[in-house]
Design goal:
Number of strands: 2
Distance between the termini: 93 Å
Structural class: mainly alpha
Shape: rod-shaped
Number of helices: 18
Strand order of the largest sheet: 1-2
Strand content: under 5%
Radius of gyration: 36 Å
Helix content: 55-70%
Number of domains: 3
Order of helices and strands: HHEEHHHHHHHHHHHHHHHH
């Protein structure tokens, strides 16, 4: 039962505040003490068992088979409608509390103090256990010696990781959708760029495949945008009360997000690497997987950063799509670095797409012995490329003779 759990938490030294809309007799039996307030003034403070006797001595006995708490609330509400409000009940409570204390024997008073310690002692005990954090204005020695955080960094990371894994496990459809998007995108790219040959045209098609593949990694990460936006108020509230360190939250979420990214990277690499016909063998494949994983990692971090800045999810999607488009524009695929104006060159180095794009190019074309232009293919993309093959052969022969004469 929830109330029993809250009672155990309170007994451990924490301060628990709860509201009960319909206090049942079962809940009253669990509580140790009750406090009824009327416009900020105490009208009853005692155990649930003494509630009937209190109202009986006040002159408003609780009827049989009626919930004492509901009867007390109804009586207080009726008194508040009068001119003096519940002042009569407040005064009676003061006299009743004084009479109850005088009626207790000495031993009873000591036991009573043992059961219900004063507020100052209760707060000091909670602070000493790490359940509360003392403010800077506290002058007690026990308060000033308490650390800012109740738990070490490792415990905070472990607890936050368990919570994140639990939340992720409750929504497996999110990961399935991301995996499905990656698989479909990889299948489309594999069928479009199927088995590219080692020709100048194949080189151009490889460049297009790499640009599309690397930008896809970042766009897929946009689904992480609403995660922190929805949890931001919880994060701010918990960190404001020193429930855990900000570093613990970052580490825990990074660790939890890493395994799905590995699966997504392998899925995309397996779908596209061999189907497109990329070279390099097993070593190049592993490096290709690492590049994709790094792209996912950077994209997730970038989107998480934006989610902490933008106030709304829809605004965040607009900003993410726009910035990723700028990253792709300045990555070096559409325009070379030498052609970018000096006042925009900083965006070229800021682009997150630039670095994985250059990495996959190095991975594919690092073999100096690999030839992509043979014979007249070297004229493709030049003014001579539109001439007849016979003319190309004559020009190629002339170049060969010239080079041979000069060698």
């Amino acid at each position: 039962m929830v109330v029993q759990v809250l009672r155990r938490i309170a007994q451990s030294g924490s301060v628990v505040i709860m509201t009960i809309h319909q206090p049942s007799a079962r809940i009253l039996g669990i509580l140790d003490r009750l406090l009824f307030l009327s416009r900020g003034r105490t009208v009853y403070a005692g155990t649930p068992a003494e509630l009937k006797r209190f109202f009986c001595e006040f002159g408003a006995p609780v009827p049989d088979n009626e919930n004492p708490a509901e009867f007390a609330l109804d009586t207080i509400r009726e008194l508040e409608n009068q001119l003096d409000g519940a002042a009569m009940l407040v005064q009676f409570n003061s006299r009743w509390q004084e009479a109850s204390r005088c009626a207790l024997p000495a031993a009873g008073k000591d036991s009573k103090l043992m059961c219900t310690m004063p507020l100052e002692l209760a707060i000091a005990e909670s602070v000493s256990r790490g359940k509360l954090v003392a403010g800077s204005g506290s002058r007690t020695a026990s308060a000033t010696s308490v650390p800012t955080f109740a738990n070490p960094l490792s415990v905070e990371v472990w607890v936050l990781m368990k919570r994140s894994f639990t939340n992720t496990g409750r929504m497996p459809e999110l990961f399935v959708m991301r995996l499905g998007t990656i698989m479909v995108t990889g299948f489309i790219l594999a069928t479009i760029f199927w088995r590219l040959d080692d020709t100048p045209k194949g080189v151009q098609e490889r460049l297009g495949f790499f640009a599309m593949a690397m930008s896809t990694m970042f766009y897929v990460c946009a689904d992480a945008l609403p995660v922190f936006v929805q949890e931001r108020h919880i994060y701010l509230r918990e960190t404001a009360h020193n429930a855990y360190r900000r570093l613990s939250y970052v580490i825990a979420n990074a660790v939890v997000a890493f395994p799905p990214l590995v699966v997504l990277s392998l899925a995309f690499a397996v779908t596209t690497f061999f189907a497109v016909g990329l070279g390099g063998g097993g070593g190049a494949f592993l490096f290709f997987v690492l590049i994709i994983l790094a792209s996912f990692w950077a994209g997730s971090g970038f989107v998480t950063f934006l989610s902490a800045v933008v106030p709304h999810v829809m605004l965040g999607y607009t900003v993410v799509v726009a910035i990723l488009a700028y990253f792709l524009l300045f990555s070096g695929f559409f325009i070379n670095r030498d052609r970018i104006p000096d006042y925009w060159i900083w965006f070229h180095y800021l682009s997150l797409v630039k670095y994985p794009y250059q990495a996959v190019l190095q991975n594919e074309f690092r073999d100096a012995t690999r030839c992509f232009a043979r014979g007249v293919e070297m004229f493709d993309g030049t003014p001579i490329g539109s001439m007849p093959v016979a003319v190309k052969l004559k020009v190629l022969g002339a170049i060969g003779r010239t080079l041979g004469a000069g060698s």
